[in-house]
Amino acid sequence: MSCKESPHPGLLLVISAPSGAGKTTLSRKLFQIFPSLRPSISCTTRPPRPNERDGVDYFFVDDAEFDDLVEKGAFVEWANVHGRRYGTKKATIDAARAAGTDILLDIDCQGAAILKRQKLDAIFIFILPPSLEELENRLRKRATDSEESIRLRLHNARQEMASADGYDYIVINDDFDQAVAELCAIITAEHCRTQRRYDALEKARA
Ligand code: 5GP
User: Fold this and answer.
1) For a tag on the chain, would you pick the N or C end, based on fewer CB atoms within 10 A?
2) Ligand 1 pocket mutation pick from 27, 54, 81 by most atoms within 8 angstroms of CB
3) 41 by DSSP, 3-state: which?
4) pLDDT computed for residue 144 by the predictor
5) Which atom of ligand 1 has the smallest separation from the CA of 19?
6) How confident is the model at residue 9 (pLDDT cuts 50, 70, 90)?
7) pTM of the model
8) 74 CB under 6 A from ligand 1?
């Protein structure tokens, strides 16, 4: 696959999907293909899974710390997802914008809706699983969640999938390589937008 990057002001990519749709694996692939694309590291009150590291996968905080961040207005968006709180810090977005780097936010539909209302210059992408049955298979196969958590995630998936029509793009993760190719096409096309090309030229001249 040849997805070449070119100079551009940063893209703010917002990707949502029901849990188990393959968003994390797809995002990892995008970070390999586009080395300058950076993940936005969220804060969460969820405890870390065995393979997760603080400051890499999430900033793991307790309820009091999260409350404090909310009170200080540190979040550009935050939401309660599957019974835990998750939030994106304003500082993370501001730093990416200032540096002109592309940033990918892997956030739920509630968070995406909050960002949409703020009229940020963001690109909203929804990843759909091929079906709810396949989603359940994937959740059970990855064996990282309890039965209760799987049920809750499946219940939430129905609602989340209903909000897909508010997004700019929908990618169906049936065939992994095809889904990656579609995501690359979206990113490349967004880099080529006329306004971004002009912005990039202006930035280069400044
Ligand atoms: P997980 O616990 O499986 O890592 O993530 C659960 C859900 O929380 C996923 O749908 C993920 O996109 C969402 N999420 C992760 N970080 C954020 C965030 O900062 N804000 C919001 N609103 N959702 C998030």
Assistant:
1) C
2) 81
3) coil
4) 74
5) 10
6) low
7) 0.89
8) no
Domains and CATH numbers, the chain: 12-40+101-205 (3.40.50.300)
Place of tokens 């409350």: 67
Give the residue from 184, 172, 192, 12 showing the smallest Cα distance to 102.
12
Compute the distance between CA of residue 27 and CA of residue 103 in angstroms, rounded to an integer.
11
Closest Cα to atom 14 of ligand 1: 107
HEC per residue, 2-35 = CCCCCCCCCCEEEEECCCCCCHHHHHHHHHHHCC
By most ligand atoms within 8 Å of CB, the mutation choice from 12, 25, 89, 107 for ligand 1 is: 107
**Whose structure tokens read 């709810």?**
132
Write the CA distances from 48 to 1, 31, 199, integer angstroms: 34, 22, 40
Q: From the CB of 108, is ligand 1 less than 6 Å away?
A: yes
Question: pLDDT tens digits, residue range 153-185?
Answer: 889 888 888 889 999 999 999 999 999 999 999
CA distance 41 to 38: 9
